[in-house]
Amino acid sequence: MAEDLATAVVTYGQPFIDHWSDWNTFSREVATSGLLLDNVRFFMLPAVAAVNGDYELADRLIRRNSSARQASRMSTRRGIATSPRSSTGLS
Could you tell me the pTM of the whole model? Predict the structure, then answer.
C-alpha cells in the first residue's frame, strides 16, 4: 500500500509540484488556473503583481476587488447572491 501511494505521488504529485514551483509559471498562470478560491484571489493576485514589480496592476486589482466585494455585500443584503470573482489575470 505504501508503495502504491509513493507511486501515485511520483506519477501525479511531482509533475504538479514541478509545474507550480517555478515562480514565472506560477505568477503567469495562477490567475487563470482555477486553483484559487475567491477569498484567496483577493489578496494573492495583487501580491503576485507587487512581487513582480507591477505596482500599478496590484493597485488596480486591490481597487477592483474592493469594489466587487462591496457590491457583493450590498447585493447579498438585498437578497441577491452574486459572485465577486474577477476574471482579471496577471498577464
Answer: 0.66
